[in-house]
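ARCHIVE CARD
SHELF: 3
SLOT: left
DATA:
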Amino acid sequence: MTIVDCAVYEGGVRRPGELAVEDAFETLHGKGSFVWIGLLEPTEDEFDAVRREFDLHELAVEDAIKAHQRPKIEVYGDSLFVVLKTVRWNAERSEIDFGEILAFVGDEFLITVRHGATDLHEVRLALEQRPDLLRNGPGAALHAVVDRVVDEYEPVIEQLDTEIRDVEANVFSPVRTSQVERIYSLKREVLHLHAVIFPLLDPLAGLARGRHSLVEQEMWTYFRDIYDHLARMSAQVGSFRELLTNVLTANLTQVGIRQNEDVRKISAWAAIIAVPTLITGVYGMNFEHMPELTWRVGYPAALVVMGAICLGLYRYFHKVGWL
């Protein structure tokens, strides 16, 4: 287990010096003081000391260790268990990388367990510059973590918007190529992102409306701001789903039209080729008494007739748009 940081905050200020996890809870003095412990991908054995020190519920601990949970807030006795999904755009694979941050929130502690690339060190440093917020206890630290996670959704949504616009432009470009595979890939990423954002709306609404007493009233407005931001993102992701469905329909329609055009072209050329084939087939029957055989211009006349009919058919099919 990697202990990223362990600190005690009193009156909105971090107590100086290093602190062992086993001693963290015992060092708290008075209302407004709390400990914030940051962990990185702990195992069950490694997390056991933290579980015993803060009397964490075994089911929540199991979820925090294994991860792969949906976004949610659950109440376990006098503490909250918060699950947040993190996202980051992978430019090499052109898809989203997902991670998780799981938080245990109590009256005097915040324990964050990180799975993935999102770094909370900068979040902690920025919050330590706001003692006015830190005085509100673990709820203020939870707000800083949630705010960072939600902010990281924005560049991923912007990148998806760019990718979708590129696909849309390719679908309606003069050089028509099938975009079905790319559309399905983007739609899969959009659905995954929707599964990250949408389930978080209700838990955030609960934090913004004071549903949980562990969050001080002064922090409700800050959580409401995050909720509004997330609601806008959810609506935007929903529009992506609808837009991709329409683009996919347009692309499949164009594929069908191109197939029909190809069938018409093949049919037109087959009709043109059938004329000389028919005439030469008649001559190939080798009848003994055919006037054309004794006529000096018989063969040239036959060639001219075949050419004229083929040219006429070509001009007709070109006029009706088959060629």
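SLOT: right
DATA:
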Amino acid sequence: MMTLTIGLTGGIATGKSTVSHMFKQLEIPVIDADVISRDVVEPGRSAYQQIVHTFGQRILHDDLTINRKELGHIIFSDETDRKRLNGIVHPAVRKEMLKQRKAYIASGAHVVVLDIPLLFESDLGHLVDKVLVVYVDSETQLERLIKRDAIETDAARQRIRAQMPLEEKIKRADVAINNNGSIEETKEQLLDLLNTWHIH
């Protein structure tokens, strides 16, 4: 039996983690790109060394770990810097994700979810068989982001604009889950979808 790889994506603050958590509750393995992207930039890893070499000591905390907030300021305001950072982090993340997927397949998993926030932006569609996008309407997205990250409206808009528009992601995905409603409604959509794909 072939293993189905589902790419889970969405926009910032659209509730992708909620759906990711639902997959885990259903005992479907989830490989989280965000978690891996934090691991690959730990001191001593090669991506860490490349980042410090590229952006300098100013992006480090006193304990030499990367100050993500400082780095975030730099890359959210300059596209060239964002591309330079992505050029270092993405290949390292991709390699680790594929390694973990291989291990899950070897242990007999029929479905593996790759949770990749920037699946389309990073051009990683070829790693998955199906793409699932979690979306909300734009007002809800803005409100949730301001509340979640405790940031100003302008900063929130800037972060949303740094990503591909949700409408575009929905067009490119195989299927989309509307997360405007309750958690129960979202879960119902997910279960329907897994039924359609004959999973569970």
